[in-house]
Amino acid sequence: MEVDFLAAWKIFRKSRTCEHVGDVEDEDFENSCTSSLKFAKMSIRKFQGISTEKSLSAQEQQAKISDVRKILGPVANKLPVLCSDASISRYLRARNWNTKKASKMLKATLKWRWEFKPEKIQWEDVAREAETGKIYRANYFDKEGRTILILRPGFQNTSDIKGQIRHLVYCVENAIMTLNPDQEQMVWLIDFEGWKMSCISVKAARETAHILQNHYPERLGVGILYNPPKVFESFWKLVKPFIEPKTYKKVRFVYPNDPQSQKMMEELFDMDKLNCAFGGRNSAGFNYETYAQWMREDDKKKFDMINSGSSSPLPSIMSEPQNSETLTPNCISMVSDEDECSSGDEKTLNLENTEEETQDLPLSCKDVAGGEAVDVAKELKKGELA
């Protein structure tokens, strides 16, 4: 289920009794939210339900993956990167091992990637958005070897929502590209320095939640909310019921003067590498020029591999020459949860009308287990889709 930020925001705004939250005592403000919060929980209970995460054996998991391949039909073989076992497993976990829902979710991602073309976003396209370092990749990993994205919402510098979303997607794709071979999840460090209520864009927040939950499932390992203000805590209580339980269980509120918070940070990070802003001992801050050069080098690695047409352990994005036989939006037919299936919960993709020549369907190679990249373009050129 997506985060319905708009609904949460309306409830939150309704609960406010004055123009500035600072004019109300924290306890009074919390009380004013109580009735709205109860209503929010009740209103979504019928959608969210009581869902317990399934625990399957390795054999049962593999059987589910095979079931999804059957539902997807020939497209699974034509797109070995996004339809790898590791990728399908993430979509299944995100949908509690429901093969029909996971298949629908994966096909929606195929369509989104065809339309949005995240692999074609380059540094120069988002450089303006990145000037303040509101989102950037750290030059160190956590103790488990996971890539770290640092987010500083208080450093918002534009009002262009489309540009903000493209910047976010670029950063997420870059973070996935740099994941270690044995990792598929990343860490988010969110610094609330300078954050105010005015920083919240409901439309941007809603689109962000939609993209991350639906097109990058199971990519978040842990999210650290560092020293959030009281007003955000109240907002979070309203948003929480709209977030999938698996997601909000990964979120941690961390406070600089709390011993338990400090212990958790020391368990997760090398404190000599962790930025001072998060309680670490690394005093080096964000340097735009240095980071820009770093991203340009990453872009070059990505596009050099694309142009060479070779497979590589680099989790970059695949492409192919123009005028080649590729998937079209018609190939990625959507299957709703109510669709009737011919066998069990299976339904095969409609792969008619595949001879239309269009641009490529962009896919991320980091979906291959163990970091082994497969050239989707090469696979697509082996023959026409049935």
UniProtKB/TrEMBL annotation:
Give GO terms: molecular function aspect only: phosphatidylinositol transfer activity
Q: Which InterPro entries match?
A: CRAL-TRIO_dom (IPR001251), CRAL-TRIO_dom_sf (IPR036865), CRAL/TRIO_N_dom (IPR011074), CRAL/TRIO_N_dom_sf (IPR036273), PI_Transfer_CRAL-TRIO (IPR052578)
Report the Pfam families cross-referenced here.
CRAL_TRIO, CRAL_TRIO_N
Instruction: List, for all copies, the residue spans of the domain called CRAL-TRIO.
Output: 123-286
* Listed name of the protein: CRAL-TRIO domain-containing protein
Q: Which organism is it from?
A: Dovyalis caffra
Tell me the organism's taxonomic lineage.
Answer: Eukaryota, Viridiplantae, Streptophyta, Embryophyta, Tracheophyta
